[in-house]
């Protein structure tokens, strides 16, 4: 999946991954994909709910070496 921007939210606790994601998604164009890296386990449900509420599409979630990776397509 080709992301136009990668957000490093590793080491941040709730609600910072969502706050940073909101800011980063404003910087990309509609239809573009934002990749987010987070270590907060709560980010899985938080980012999923945030994407849904904003009309964005959570394309995929993966976990690699305790890092959660999210790909969100901007509405």
Automatic annotation (TrEMBL):
Q: Name one Pfam family in it.
A: TusA
- This protein is called UPF0033 protein YrkI
The similarity comment for this entry is: Belongs to the sulfur carrier protein TusA family.
The record's listing under InterPro entries reads: TusA-like, TusA-like_sf
Record organism: Lentibacillus kapialis
- Show which residues constitute the signal peptide: none
Enumerate the spans annotated as UPF0033 domain.
Answer: 7-31
Q: Which domain of life is it from?
A: Bacteria
């Amino acid at each position: 999946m080709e992301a136009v921007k990668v957000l490093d939210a590793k080491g941040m606790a709730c609600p910072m991954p969502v706050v940073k994601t909101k800011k980063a998604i404003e910087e990309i164009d509609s239809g573009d994909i934002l990749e987010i890296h987070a270590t907060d386990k709560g980010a899985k449900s938080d980012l999923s709910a945030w994407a849904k509420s904003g009309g964005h599409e959570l394309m995929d979630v993966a976990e690699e070496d305790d890092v959660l990776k999210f790909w969100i397509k901007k509405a």
